[in-house]
Amino acid sequence: MKKIKVKAYAKINLSLDVLGKREDGYHEISTVMQSIDLADILEFEKNEIVKVFCSDHRVPEGEDNLIVKVINLLKEKYQKKEGVLVKLNKKIPLAAGLAGGSADAAATIVALDKLWNLNMSKEEKKEIALKVGADVPFCLEGGTKLAKGIGEIFENLKVPSMSLLLVKPDIEISTKEIYDKWDRLNFKSHHATFLVAQAIQEGNIYKIAENIKNDLELVTSRECEVINQIKEELLKKGALGCAMSGSGPTVYGIFDDLERLKRAYEDLKEVYSFVFFSKTIDKGLELYE
Ligand SMILES: C[C@@](CO)(OP(=O)(O)O)[C@H](O)COP(=O)(O)OP(=O)(O)OC[C@H]1O[C@@H](n2ccc(N)nc2=O)[C@H](O)[C@@H]1O
Ligand SMILES: Nc1ncnc2c1ncn2[C@@H]1O[C@H](COP(=O)(O)OP(=O)(O)O)[C@@H](O)[C@H]1O
């Protein structure tokens, strides 16, 4: 029986400017999104029924799972009667600002396109992706992108390779709540994206690290003081710069010295439940048939 295996990579936001609220409730943003080498592994196999098995029992296995959402949308659009078995080996922490669910959704689009011989165009894949979530179109493409709109209008960038330390405190964040609070709190955007994109174009990792900034950090760190604490610790341990990813609570630091990074990893893993040594990569998905 034909099986398709996909590695679905997480993302971080090297910048995130919130520019305003649209009529549909979504926010216009300007952000630099970056794939990193932390990935879920998914296996897809033809079957009569639809079933998702996940290694982490906190992930919903029914209709609320973004994988199931993609399967149902594709079944409807292409009038498919068959099902699929999906095994998800979850490595990307949940509700962490790292787009784990979105990466799984993007993986499902490319896997089912192959498994069910759908011959989807790039535009058709993107259309399904956007129906599932604002981060899913990025996860389909991956790499480094300047993203506008609600995060789906792209310009390609090429980032110099960077070593990162990710630290996630033990809290889960609701993206919707954080965007809602952004409106209520009336904060002003840092408008960091322009400077970060410029630094990337110059290939200057020191300038990138100096400018990384995320508007949503103002909201999340108000409730989770530990975010500022992690940032302080990362800087003290030699990070060139650090910021929160997405709606949080994961914080990442950029390092140019691997010895310092290793020491920071050893120290911080004693304190926080998820500490991960990572690097930037130039793709969002990897498919094996
Ligand atoms: C904040 C970001 C930054 O990359 O990432 P995460 O923290 O989720 O990783 C994204 O904008 C999140 O994208 P994603 O998580 O796919 O959002 P969705 O599922 O489409 O939307 C969840 C909710 O977030 C809000 N939302 C999302 C995106 C956006 N541009 N404006 C919004 O206001 C909406 O209230 C929506 O109902
Ligand atoms: N395949 C999936 N993997 C992880 N979470 C999922 C998935 N499908 C749906 N979810 C739900 O989406 C929520 C947030 O998803 P996730 O993508 O991990 O976070 P974020 O949006 O912060 O990047 C989870 O708490 C979970 O309830």
TrEMBL record:
Report domain GHMP kinase N-terminal positions.
Answer: 65-143
Name the domain of life this protein comes from.
Answer: Bacteria
Key word Membrane present: no
List of residues binding ATP: 93-103
Q: Which Gene3D superfamilies match?
A: 3.30.230.10, GHMP kinase, C-terminal domain
**EC number(s) from the headed UniProt entry:** 2.7.1.148
Catalytic residue positions? 11, 135
Molecular-function GO term, any one: 4-(cytidine 5'-diphospho)-2-C-methyl-D-erythritol kinase activity
Family affiliation:
Belongs to the GHMP kinase family. IspE subfamily.
Provide the protein name: 4-diphosphocytidyl-2-C-methyl-D-erythritol kinase
- Per the UniProt entry, what species is this protein from, by scientific name? Thermoanaerobacter thermohydrosulfuricus WC1
Give me the gene this protein comes from. Answer: ispE
